[in-house]
Amino acid sequence: MHLMYFTEQPMSAYDEKAGLDFGATALMFSNKYFDPVAGSRLYNEYLEQYKLAEEVGFDGIMLNEHHNAPFCMQAKCNVFASILAAMTKRVKIVLLGNPLPLAEDPLRLAEELAMIDMVSKGRLVSGFVRGGGQEQLATGVNPAYNRERFEEAHEVIIKAWTETGPFRFEGTHYHHRVINPWAVPLQKPHPRVWIPGVLSKETIIWAAKVGYPYIALSTEIEATKKIWELYDKVAAENGHSGGPEFRGYLQRMHVAETEEKALANARQFMWMQGEFTGLAHPVWSSPSGYFSPAMRKAFVEYAVGRRSNPRGAAFEDQLKNQQIIAGTPKSVIPKLRRLLEETRPSIIGFWANDGFVSAQDTRTCIRLLGEEVLPAVREIGKELGLWSPFEANAPTSRAFPAPARPAGEV
Amino acid sequence: MADIVWTSETLPLASGPLQLRRSGSGTPLLILHHDIGTLERLPFYDALARTHTVLVPSHPGYDGSERPSWMRNVRDIAVIYQALIAETQLRDLTVVGLGFGGWIAAEMATMAPRGFRKLVLVGAMGLKPERADIADQALLSYIAYVRLGFADEAVFERYYGAHIPTERLEQLDLNREMTFRIAWKPYMYSPTLPHLLGDVATPTLVVWGREDRVVPLECGERYAKALRNATLEVIDGAGHYVEMEKPDVLVRLIKGA
Hints:
Chain A is α/β, with parallel strands linked by helices. Chain A has a single domain (2-405), classed as TIM Barrel, CATH 3.20.20. Chain A has helices spanning 16-22, 36-55, 77-87, 106-119, 133-138, 146-162, 201-210, 221-237, 259-266, 282-285, 296-303, 315-320, 329-343, 359-384; strands spanning 2-7, 60-63, 92-99, 124-129, 167-170, 175-179, 187-188, 195-197, 214-217, 247-255, 324-327, 347-353, 405-406. In chain A, helix 7 links the parallel strand 8 and strand 9 (214-217). Chain B is of the alpha/beta class. In chain B, strands 1-2-4-3-5-6-7-8 form an eight-stranded mixed beta sheet, with helices on both faces. Chain B has one domain (7-256): Rossmann fold.
């Protein structure tokens, strides 16, 4: 199993009432409410928490990025990845991930990621995402070409990593006169790529075709099973077997010394309300052309207020269906067993702290996870044969079947 | 208006099939619709069809027509309409462009500076305002954006009803997606168009709703100044959708111009 620590890095030190009054905490919610003094403190607290996560035994630290919203302070995951590359020694640095369509120059990303891989001595896992709906607006990128840009930027990056330069790339959205970066990844054939997602079938199908692990972001168990059904079916059609080493899951889970405290802190997962969108504004989170055409009806009705967020669910419901788990280490382990037995992932991200959970409770949670929960999960993983891509020496992708490894001892 | 009969056809242009509705007889009018598409029947269309041959194409990718996935630019649509004119051998043509369609009409005029009998630009997009911005539909719901174009709420409801059915919302979304595909950046204007307008010799009528909250009146003033042979008419009590709010006034202007 590969067990990762994750936090959205909430920017919780803003005037909550101002957000509620405005009716949305994304995109157009004024950054006059962003306090850089609190921001500086929080960034440094998060760094300390990542350090602790490595100390207590996590295998990886999962990072992400979002724009114009207090629910996530990372505006560029490569910045934290760079810091962690130098600051940590053992953990994988798992980016889930860089939003490819937002990049005007994917070659630049290829260079940054290669630098992170070299500085970390080959500990990079470079996931890629499409970026949330409103992030297309925050960065001025055309939502109508989101998926085309995703696939084409991916092509540029993989080529830059695996083919020797100089060469030229003429795509539909990206045009590079010269690709010849003087920074290439330490890992060969290239760093592993994992693809997180929550709703779009197209992304699952694409990941299965290319042969990258897919990381289901806090979906319900039944929905997760359907994801793996689809993934394995497409994988089989494309000549690989799928299975646990291609399956990841992000579990919202807070542990504390008492059930009451765990439950109170877990309620903070609702702080970001509409899943990816903070206090979501339906129009901004679903710009035309961004969502899957199959979901058009649901999203246009959502956008004019005729139905609730197709991604949203109440706290109690999420506890019941295990999208959120809260408790003492003892009480959460059987729930994790159920998750592992029913959906058989080998990669788990523990999204452990959100919203206004105090720094002290956060550290307690990380420590309890490391000392009591992770060892139990590893045992269950062994019993169920859930070997991570690293343990299973899984292929890097269909195109590059060799398992990713550093080119040499550093 | 029961006596006005409209027919639909699909023109198989090499660039893709073009959907077209047609009615009336007399000197031809080509009417180019807004970015939100168009309702199938408008009193405005019917009134013009009494004295003219009226052609209302659906822009490629709008209102149920096939999406040209290759298209990247509003000017591409202008080129397609030049092909339409050549194909249907329309002579002595007046082009009426509404809002986004006005931008297309202006592009067409720059390609054929003496090509039309008349050009009518109504609340046309295409030029960058200096004192304000063209309203950004990306930040507004489908309904809010349509509403914004009316000076009078009651008129909005008269045309669209109190409850817009989901099917129409889906079409508004598809139209918006197509608009994003060709006019996302820069949003709703062409930086090269102002430099090309000065050689257009076609007599032009620029019409603006005084309460246009989508495209600032300033753009109308700029069009009237940049075009060699243009006059500006500002209509009181109308917003962006002059053809829906003040159809009689606009019809009179088009016929008299």
